[in-house]
Structure formats: structure tokens, C-alpha cells
Amino acid sequence: MVEQTGEEIDWERCPPEWDDFPQSVPTAMEIFNCLGDKIQSEIGFVGKDFTNIDMLYNLHDITHPKEKDWTLELLLYLEGQAIDRSQKAIKAEYEKAKKK
Predict the structure, then answer these.
(1) Which of 81, 85, 69 shows the shortest CA–CA distance to 24?
(2) Long-range contacts of 57-60 (CB under 8 A, 24+ apart)
């Protein structure tokens, strides 16, 4: 697209590639996507089901306690972001329905 407009690439505005992150980040994303969702009616997404976390750690060869802690910290961050997005979407739908 930059070639079409004749502009120079602004690397500060480019989104990061997976290679820009340490391996623990894509691994945490993969584990996050493998975890089940907990959803309640009227509330929406309330979090991830961490029942199988040990199996997923073993599957990804995460054995060191500090590595497990770091991965869990990433997973909890992702979970918090997903909960926030769900709450905002439900609130927007509620407001939309209320206006009708």
C-alpha cells in the first residue's frame, strides 16, 4: 500500500510481528485460545476455564515455576482484556435495545 501512495514507511505506526515478541507471548496466546470460555447469560464472558492448564503447560513444555508464573500472568492479562471487551459489547447492546 505504501508503494501505491508513494509515502515512506513509518515504522513507529506499524503493528508488531510475532517475531518481535519473546516465544512466551505466542505460546501464551495459543494456550489462551485452547482454554474454554465461561459465559453466563445477562453477564456474558466471565473468564477462562483454567481446569486444563497443567495439561497445556505440559503440552508446551512449560515446566519451570517462573515460566509457569509468567505464562499465567500473560493469560490473566488476556482474560481481563477479553472480559472488558465483553462487558463493553453487552453494555452497548443494552443501550441500543433501550433506545428502541
Answers:
(1) 69
(2) 57/31, 60/27, 60/30, 60/31
Q: What is the pTM of this model?
A: 0.80
Q: How many CB atoms lie within 10 A of CB 31?
A: 23
In sequence order, which residues have a C-beta less than 8 Å from that of residue 43 and are 6 or more positions away?
Answer: 90
Whose grid coordinates read 516465544? 23
User: In degrees rounded to 5, what are phi and psi of residue 49?
Assistant: -95, 110
| List of residues 6+ apart from 92 with CB closer than 8 A | none
The pLDDT-based confidence of 43 (bands split at 50, 70, 90) is confident
* Pairwise CA distance, residues 34 & 32, whole Å: 5
Q: CB count, 10 Å around CB of 73?
A: 12
Helix 65-99 to helix 24-34 angle, to the nearest 10 degrees?
50
- Distant-in-sequence, close-in-space partners of 48: CB < 8 Å, separation ≥ 6: 32, 35, 36, 37, 38, 75, 79, 82
